């Protein structure tokens, strides 16, 4: 039913004076009728007193009259301490400028014309509001001395001119007031602070504190609370969720992505924004996610990262069926939380390819969820694997950005790493960033070591990340080059493949030869791996459709499905002798293995440490396990690959998990077990989401294909631990063929291109993460502790500048400032206005507002009278200053008016109620050249005078 507007009814006595009234505005009518009559004392008893209420009445109060306010209420829950806060709360409203009103009130206080006392805590039994005009008039009723009570609410009032009755009310009033709490001093102090404007640094701190606003939540056993650096990422992600519906968090391995993701889910659920979470993550981290989510009472369901790739099933017990049911039920109260999101980095190439009949299953399943308004949080340690298209692939998993100008929605895109880092939905946090943040916080121990303060202990990053490159001669290099040049490893028909070229920013199509590439990778891996590849080659058909003459294939022998370019007999002339040598060669002839044996001897035998070895081929894993166990009787060797009856396969998930726990029991707390191994051989199936911090040495035995794989491998051991002197060693084994620049064989050129791509991809990924994991130099030591700015290899300052405000330089600097001054920030007033000089040409005001539970910064061009769109980090960069910064010469009234005008314009554009918005802090940014012009004008005026 539509609201019926209540009329204002007024009645007068025989002398024409207001006698009674009811309806909205009755209080204002009585103020206009009776306040001007007060010449000495105007006494008011009211449940609430507000500045806007005072603003309505002040122009009707004669200058000599003294105003006395008695605030009282019958409800005990209103405490003395809350009254001044209630009065000052209107400093956050945005409808009315109050600066002149506050100035008038302060003047009355200083001249003894205003008193205010609180009677609530005395439990004085009065609920009626009344106004005494000298000894002449009493009017009472239900009108509080507030804007709403006087102008908006339908209230009632009655007047009395009986002197006996009036005197009785005055006596009662004065007796209660004499015993009430005097609020004058506190009110004056706090109003004066607001009126004189805060310092720029105070306003800056206030904004940082509120943008980082994360109320403390109760913690249960086993649930890890977020650290200081995680809190900043969580707060930013929650703002991104509210504003864009999604967030992509790129945090280096070991920085606690699980805790970050669990906190985001918990806080969204507590705020009522979501009711359930759909978690997609690697199977290996299921237990860790359950501990953090279940411990926070998050309603969630878990699916492994591979499920989303599977064919649709109509069987209710299948996980893909359950996932599709979840997606169909998804709405705006659903959170899709994807851990290790880089698994889906190639989906855009799949989806955009015109030569593939099947589109990306990942996008086909995610798009309905996005269309239904679900929220998305993506977590990964690495976003760049092979090309910039990887970045867009991940951004397509987020809710699209809405263009208000055109009314359309488009997926987020990044045409460069720099633009990716500046997207408002992206946050990047690398290891050096965290160290610098801790340094700024002052977390340095008695030995000068920077530490990260966790709940009950200090943890340290290794003082050095020691990168080592060792070279070896490939076995049978001339013979393998000759066979490749003769096209023994070529398919008859190449396969069309799409790939993205960063340099021209285009998707191109090329031909790929899976057999040639597989053979090359096997040769680079081990004699055992290349033997498997050659045997498979010799059992495959040639272009003529024939097998080798007079040779019956072994039963069950593997072969390539695609026919090869050369006939089988011709291939046999080259490959049969090679296969015999590779099968029969021992470790003595394998120069690459000898390098590994030396590493194991240094780090396991000599120093009793541990070594983690990554390989690309399953047969290489078995080969190394047997060789190391035979050579090092006292070194226990674990492996995540098994061999049974000549069949080599990846061990089951449970068995691999047991091997990982046996290798690194301390990192699997609280489910620790016996320490079983000093060496662990594994594939990249166990290179993601697994903490193996008991180990401090990793060996890239085989080269990874993407930069993200390289960082993931190193990330297994590059963790924060309680050991301050734990150095991390990373070995990469490279073939000497890379140094043979005059070698023009096909294999030499292919290997050089392979490692060039790996180096280029590493550099681009390093530019995002701000740290290195690979070097082509023999030895590079990266000091992860100490004077980070001086690191010439990491080039910290350059990298932090490169990643701008999206999680490094700006994000880091602001977070460090808040951490250093958090205690001061917590003591600041609720509402702050300030001014600051800055190096821009426009007069702007930056306002931090709260709308419901959400905080956001808005920017308003005051001279052009229009809102402007900038990222939070840009606005905070303009405001950033230290405690010595001075206020810019801008009148306080202008600051408040500009801030209110900004919020009013924003509310109009957003089509929301201005009454639902509170301005918490605002800074008027005055161009520095404007200040210079003011000085010149002053000098000119003085000269003329």
From TrEMBL:
This is DEAD/DEAH box helicase family protein. Residues 238-401 form the Helicase ATP-binding domain. It comes from Hymenobacter ruricola. CDD domains: SF2_C_SNF. Transmembrane segments: none annotated. Keywords: ATP-binding, Helicase, Hydrolase, Nucleotide-binding. One of its GO terms (molecular function) is helicase activity. It comes from the Bacteria. The keyword Nucleotide-binding applies. InterPro entries: DEAD_box_RNA_helicase, Helicase/UvrB_N, Helicase_ATP-bd, Helicase_C-like, P-loop_NTPase, SNF2/RAD54-like_C. Residues 599-766 form the Helicase C-terminal domain. It holds the Pfam family ResIII.
